[in-house]
Amino acid sequence: MWIYAQFKKKQQFISITIESFGAIADGTTDCYYPFKLASLYAASHANTTITFGSGTYYIAKYRSVDNDTTDHIHWNNCSGLKLIGVTGTKISLNGTFFRNWDYSTSDCSKKSFTSGLSPFWFDNCSDLEIRNMEITGNCQNTTRAPGSDENNPSVTESSNILLRLTKCTDVLVDSMYLHHAEVDGLWIGGDRIGGVWINTTNITVTNTRCLNNCRQGLSAGGISNGYFKNCEFSFSGFVGGTYGHNDPAAGVDLEPGLLHFDDGIFFEDCKFENNYGGQFLCAGPLYTSNLTLLKCTVTAVGSQKNQGITILTNGALIDSCIISMGTRDLKITNVAKPGSKITIRNSTIDATRNFLLTESSNPLDSVVIENNDISYIGSTMTTNLFTLRTTKLKFLNNTIYISPAAIASRPTGFHAVVANAIISSGNVFSSGMRVDYSGTTTVSDP
């Protein structure tokens, strides 16, 4: 105990301004090299706090040729680093350039050497804190040649991510506004050290908005223990200008794999609204576990693609959420990707067409849907509201409402399907609804 106390006394805690490295928040001076100097300083001085004043720090540099020496601003191996802004702190990247088709990758993706930078790319950092900043990639000013259609651009995305965290630990991100990135507002994941994969672990993100980014609000491929509170991931793919979007144009996309697994990710009081693509995507049940959405709002009405929500996860809970699907899909099982275990409870869900489809006979898939208010808000129906045919399904104590006019508009066929399930019990359906229970073991709905 005495040795630890003496060590703490000897630690140096440094506070310095970004202006000390030559940055000027006047919106026109290029702050690329001051930011680079700050990153090098932070790497060699533990427990440094760098403060940012009110005003716009402009980064004029961008990448334009193969092996460009103008690189992203890497903050490597920092310990105890704090980057603290104030009200009015803004980092503005130069997005005024044209992205030409320069080469193709092995999977035939069309790429350009020209791309914006990442001002904050943290790698292998610990005890990290980033607060109170607005960062814009200004992709509304970026152009590229037209593609064959809006979903097949002439060139695909680069690596212009506004805030990137790779194999970091003990991180706090608070009160950030990340918008108009050509790729993602926020990217969190892992990488290899000596051939061993290292996740980013113990990250908390609060009061942060990721809006109007070309590809995604948040991409996560390698998180262990992530907590997101009062955050918003909306309007991905809607950036203004002529650039368009980069697929999947989602609010959040968990992108796990054989090495970069995601485990223990918790979203509370968060919003995922009107992204061009999916609102929340996770399609890796073998590599994703312990996902929770609590008291979140999901709105897919503005989505331009069928994927509204896809959650294929080994252990997911959607609890006390407000979900408006419009005409988009909520997918919770996939015959090609078994192993999805999910509970949806205490939530309010509405849609204007068949929105919930789960058809799986695989014993690795398990679904519980309980205590929800589910509504069809259209006046006419052409198909049933939901189709639930999962052999390990429990459908319990839900209230399902369809207006009399909508029920009358479908004089034949079913209005809902709860078939081949373990149990359907305690569910209250609107008067006149016809439900297909064929193959369900226990049916005790009133």
Task: Explain the overall architecture.
This protein has a domain at 14-97 and 113-146 and 157-243: Single-stranded right-handed beta-helix, Pectin lyase-like (Pectate Lyase C-like, 3 Solenoid), CATH 2.160.20.10. The strands form six sheets. The chain has a 20-stranded parallel beta sheet that branches. The chain has a 13-stranded parallel beta sheet with strand order 5-11-14-16-21-24-27-30-33-36-39-42-45. Helix content is 6%, strand content 45%. Mean pLDDT is 93; it is low at 1-9. The termini are far apart. It contains three helices and 46 strands. It is mainly beta and 446 residues long. The longest helix is centred in the N-terminal third of the chain and has 13 residues, at 32-44.
Brief characterization of the structure:
With about 450 residues, the protein is mainly beta.
